[in-house]
């Protein structure tokens, strides 16, 4: 059993918690690695990949503790992924060092509409030069916007604004707006466009398995009624 940066961050967050963290479905007996119900554990199916691209997850407070979080899937597939908790006033020194790594081109993954007019914006990952370091702001949409606005150490970095054409299949949380995708879906699209095809395919497949296993543990989720209706032709 191997760990990853998100699991380490989760352990740190739990260690300093002053009261138990009670996520939805907290009565379910879960695997403490993949956070899925034990009967649906996917740990044995994880297949790490190599990629030119790197990821740095900046996670809002309790995000690494949530079973529905998909940033953890990126770290499972790409073991070099780094993960840090976000702080507006005291950013982690290791995080600041990671985004200044001279061997990589740091890119803040966020919609171009939120970038200032004079900020550099890319709409596709660079295929030459330094490998990209995709900085993902991982939280709810409201939390991600707050991190984007209130992280001055990000302001000088280019924005990577990716258009994901396929509709989101996340459904584990309510989307804030139409066209929004979860962290793992965006990462898979970035990998594919960056030419890391094997890693992109594995992340897509792993996300599909995760989604299915997660929803299997929530028999009353509305998606089950929808899928049943579609399969019966209603």
UniProtKB/TrEMBL annotation:
<keyword id="KW-0808">Transferase</keyword>
<dbReference type="GO" id="GO:0016432">
    <property type="term" value="F:tRNA-uridine aminocarboxypropyltransferase activity"/>
</dbReference>
<dbReference type="InterPro" id="IPR039262">
    <property type="entry name" value="DTWD2/TAPT"/>
</dbReference>
<keyword id="KW-0819">tRNA processing</keyword>
<keyword id="KW-0949">S-adenosyl-L-methionine</keyword>
<dbReference type="Pfam" id="PF03942">
    <property type="entry name" value="DTW"/>
</dbReference>
<feature type="domain" description="DTW">
    <location>
        <begin position="27"/>
        <end position="219"/>
    </location>
</feature>
<dbReference type="InterPro" id="IPR005636">
    <property type="entry name" value="DTW"/>
</dbReference>
<protein>
    <recommendedName>
        <fullName>tRNA-uridine aminocarboxypropyltransferase</fullName>
        <ecNumber>2.5.1.25</ecNumber>
    </recommendedName>
</protein>
